[in-house]
Amino acid sequence: MISTDVDRAVERLRAGGLVALPTETVYGLAADARQPDAVARVFDVKGRPTNHPLIVHLADPGLIDEWAVDVPEAAWHLSTSAWPGPLTMLLNRRVDVADVVTGGLPTIGLRVPSHPMTRDVLRRLGSGVAAPSANRFGRISPTTAEHVLADIGEILDPERDLILDGGACEIGVESTIVDLTVTPPQVLRAGAIAADDLQRILRIDLEDASGPSRASGMLASHYAPSRVVVMPVEGRQAAAALATTRRGRGERVAVLDRTDDLVVAAHLLYADLREADAGLLDALVVVLPPPRGLGHAIRDRVLKAAATTPTNPPG
Ligand code: TXA
Ligand code: MG
Fold it and tell me: What is the pTM of this model?
């Protein structure tokens, strides 16, 4: 199921199969966005509700017009500064985009990823691919081909589907999602590109998403381990104290503190959570990074991982 063969990945996508693709953020589970039946299978494999729209990944910023209309100047500006890269833009969709891709919404999420293998696949395919993160719905996103295999390997069809192995994802947390259909634009999901950087590129103030959640990554419970309890804590000393208290009650507790280097922290975050979940731990105390730059995205994911743990299962 795991392969490094780009030609085969393209063939399988063309034939309507699913291919788990490496990106610089996390692995995506891709289908040709112009084949509604293939896209529908992505929802089945993930166990994802069909009203949660998928991001369409493109080979090149010049292809925006094939998927979106009324593209504002700010979007073109962002596309030249931030693409290829970890930014998803919400734009008004073209009417010929399949409903299954956007969950029937009038908007579409677009992104040009930077991983060379996936860019190669997209260029050769000559289409966009609809791809959510390649995990079961609500669980921890995969940052290696082995994570994908462990999560959905048994659900994929070895005759039709493929996991393209491009190594460990460089960044490790999902793209920043910015909604450009509203003025001023709103950041709906913190990600690898900090809101500060977007503001600098656009020279305008961005708003944080308010009101009812519009992106599923905004659900309080997400990125969830299945066994270990994740306990986010502000500061090293508080973390050590909490760990001591819990150990005193006979619990098996580890402390995750990568606040010295947030690039490494993001790169390893999901592997760290998976390892803690697979081990013999009762609780993982996580030292939260300061809410600056990449720290926003890491805090967001850790807090969401904590919102759904064995003591607080999803509804
Ligand atoms: O880094 C990433 O963005 C990764 C890689 C694979 O590209 N993808 C990813 O996809 O994280 P997913 O589906 O796990 O998260 C995308 C989020 C979801 O919360 C989805 O609801 C939201 O983006 N989204 C996509 N299209 C949307 C739209 N038209 N309107 C509102 N939210 C949208
Ligand atoms: Mg996801």
Answer: 0.94
